[in-house]
Amino acid sequence: MRAAWFADRHAALASRAHAARLLAASRDLPPALAGELHLARAQVLLALADDAEADRALAAAEAAAPWSFRAALARGEAALLAGRPDHARVCFTEAAARAPGRVEPILAGARAALADGRVADALETLRAAVRAHPSSSDAALALARLLALREETDDALAALAAAPLDDTARAALHRDPAFDALRGDPTFRRLAGDLPPDALDGPGERPLGGAGGSAYHARGELIE
């Protein structure tokens, strides 16, 4: 049954990639929308592990919307998946310069540091992200995850308690083995809360954000 699910999922993703390519090829589309479609196609192609075609889609997104921080961010995420943290870091720095008020490039930079074995740099980057974006559940979750892996339990719980956690973040608390050592703590159980079973079920697909990171999702924000 699981094999059939993956086969159906693969076919659906391939269909989405084809549809996005056809739409993006339309001459009547504004550049921002064309760029968004190219990014959406790149995400699907990376989920299918078609890295070469995904690179072409990312290049098309940059050509259509060169001002977009999401285009630079997506290039960096793809580089991380390809095992090129140095190149990813360059892309994330570019994304941060395009959108200095966004937290996503900062968190991505921390993931690049971790992929390169620079744990102390990643930790400082995440602390800076939390200071600059105190209401970001993504920043708090990323910092708490790294602290939990370092067995700094009190600091991890403090990071989680300091920011509002949405359902996506709380689902990650339930699902992520990085938090296994905290599960018996009453503070952790209170912060994680209860979620419906369907929020935690179902096999996943390869995300553009990589393991432990936030996947890129096109949201029509290429004008930023």
How would you describe what is shown here?
This protein is mainly α. The protein has eleven helices and no strands. Helix 6 packs antiparallel against helix 7. The longest helix has 23 residues, at 2-24. The model is unreliable at 1-11 and 202-224 (pLDDT under 50).
Can you describe this structure in just a few lines?
This protein is mostly helical and 224 residues long.
How many helices? 11
Into which percentage range does the β-strand content fall? under 5%
Low-pLDDT runs? 1-11, 202-224
User: Which bin fits the share of residues in helices?
Assistant: 55-70%
Annotation, overall tally of beta strands = 0
**What is the N-to-C succession of helices and strands?**
HHHHHHHHHHH
Averaged pLDDT: 76
Morphology call: elongated
Radius of gyration: 18 Å
Straight-line N-to-C gap: 42 Å
Main structural class:
mainly alpha
Largest sheet properties: none
Write a concise keyword list for the protein shown above.
disordered N terminus; 0% strand; 224 residues
Write the layout of secondary structure elements.
Elements: H1 2-24, H2 31-47, H3 51-64, H4 69-81, H5 85-98, H6 104-115, H7 119-132, H8 137-149, H9 153-161, H10 167-175, H11 186-192
